[in-house]
Amino acid sequence: MRNILIIGAGRSASSLIKYLLNKSDAENLHLTIGDLSLELAERKTNNHKNATAIQLDIANVEQRQAEIQKADIVISMLPAFMHIDVAKDCIAFKKHMVTASYISDAMQALDEEVRANNLVFMNEIGLDPGIDHMSAMKILDEIREEGGKMILFESFCGGLVAPESDNNLWNYKFTWNPRNVVLAGQGGAAKFIQEGTYKYIPYHKLFRRTEFLEVEGYGRFEGYANRDSLKYRSIYGLDDALTVYRGTIRRVGYSKAWDMFVQLGMTDDTYAIDDSETMSYREFVNLFLPYHPTDSVEIKLRHQLKIDQDDVMWDKLLELDLFNPNKIIGLKHATPAQILEKILTDSWTLEPHDKDMIVMYHKFGYELNGEKKQIDSTMVCIGDDQTYTAMAKTVGLPVAMATLQILNGNIKTPGVQLPIKKEVYEPILKELEEYGVIFTEKQVIYKGYK
Fold first, then answer.
1. In whole angstroms, what is the distance from residue 415 CA to residue 418 CA?
2. DSSP label at 28?
3. Less CB within 10 Å around the terminal CB: N or C of the chain?
4. Cβ distance 55 to 41 under 8 Å?
5. Closest to 97 in 3D by CA, of 428, 411, 421, 403
6. First to last CA, the chain
7. Angle between the 83-92 and 61-70 helix axes, to the nearest 10 degrees?
8. E strands along 195-242, which residues?
9. 232-253 exposure pattern, b = at least 16 Cβ within 10 A, e = fewer
10. Contact present, 297 and 323 (Cβ < 8 Å)
11. In Å, how far from its chain's centre is CA 430?
């Protein structure tokens, strides 16, 4: 039997584990699923004969190393900052490693050792980062093979609620880590290049600078800029492209509404609020508003944000029950961002019957034989249920597929890497289509940058 150690049995591991267990007889696999919660690990094994659940504390060096030593390949689904100890053990015991996380400086620093030991450390092989890299590189390589010269590249991705489960005014529910949604865009200006000019959008302006996107069969969306769109410019071979822009997708109207929280200061995570534990939702809102002897919290908020009573923005705030004097926050020494996350979780949690949806959209502008051309590539994936969500599927399946490809010797280029080589993206994109992750490519009239 070939042993795969999976560290972390959280939400994104569901589809990953299911895929590998379905292949386990044919591929001669045994899965060891380790998590701090033994109960969670056991639930994910689903009593399968080729899986063993263990309680694993990665801070326990002896146990961690013993489990890594027994494995042929290690999948780390831990938070990114926890990968490094696992990675160093994988080098010591000569084991391949797969993660869905961004390559950190600490991980990149291991590249030389990883190569020297002829190991594959595949990172950024989830959804975004992951499927975005693979689907973009496939088309970029095809354009270049034809002799085309890239002039524009835009890439957007978003985790949303599926149309059939979309029943609130925000057209949004949490499909992933709520904290990341609340803190989105913080930590520096969004940076991209447009028509040859560098552009920077400070956080307080980010959600008012959006771009519209049409996805056939699903209508109109909007995109706001990611923090650093130029991070992959050289990696993708786009140093000469005039426009490089990466963004996050939401339904139209979301960003303008979200901006209300930004302007009030409710997304701030840098300080704790006194007596937050006993504070009501209404009192929390009032913290950010000026004192007035007679005006209500509602009136003060409308004045502050310049919202008319018949504006849908006002209805969106009412829907969240923000002004309820009887709902208590119940979090000690909480930051505004943590309190906002709790309030939103009341309204935006997926119900058991709800489905989520992933939307990805790439635009490729290029010049071929003196003519400007454009390809639009879109992918929409809808989840099955609350366990096998579209998010779990699109994050977990590429991780599982890459693991098997490495084990079977099909991916063999050593080093700390992301999935931009043909040997990686070709088989994985092809197999993803069997699971409903399908890109539709269309040649359209070149539009440049609006």
1. 10
2. T
3. C
4. yes
5. 403
6. 55
7. 50
8. 197-201, 210-215, 219-225
9. bbeebbbeebbbbbbbbbbbeb
10. yes
11. 21
CA dihedral 64, 70, 72, 75 (to 10 degrees): -30
Q: Contact at 8 Å (CB) between 443 and 373?
A: yes
Give residue for tokens 């996350």: 341
Report CA torsion sign: 312, 313, 319, 324.
Answer: negative
Contacts 24+ apart (CB under 8 A), 140-149: 140/236, 140/237, 140/238, 140/364, 141/422, 143/364, 143/366, 143/368, 143/375, 144/237, 146/368, 147/368, 147/369, 148/366, 148/367, 148/368, 148/373, 149/240, 149/366, 149/367, 149/368
Residues in contact with 309: Cβ distance below 8 Å, sequence separation at least 6, in sequence order: 302
Kindly give the confidence (pLDDT) of every residue in the chain, 450 residues in length, as a single tens digit, with 9 standing for 90 and above: 999 999 999 888 888 999 999 999 999 999 999 999 999 999 989 899 999 999 999 999 999 999 999 999 999 998 888 999 999 999 999 999 999 999 999 999 999 999 999 999 999 999 989 999 999 999 999 999 999 999 999 999 999 999 999 999 999 999 888 999 999 999 889 999 999 999 999 999 999 999 999 999 999 999 999 989 999 999 999 999 999 999 999 999 999 999 999 999 999 999 999 999 999 999 999 999 999 999 999 999 999 999 998 899 999 999 999 999 999 999 999 999 999 999 999 999 988 889 999 999 999 999 999 999 999 999 999 998 877 889 989 999 999 999 999 999 999 999 999 999 999 999 999 999 999 999 999 988 887 654
For residue 275, give every residue at least 6 positions away whose Cβ sits within 8 Å of its Cβ, in sequence order, or none: none
Q: How far apart are CA 112 and CA 41, in angstroms?
A: 34
Residues β-bridged to residue 160: 357
Q: Which residue has the tokens 């059939």?
A: 164
> 158 near 131, Cβ under 8 Å?
no
Interatomic CA distance for residues 284 and 305, integer angstroms? 16
How far apart (Å, rounded) are the C-alpha atoms in residues 3 and 51?
10
In this structure, the strands spanning 371-382 and 439-444 are antiparallel
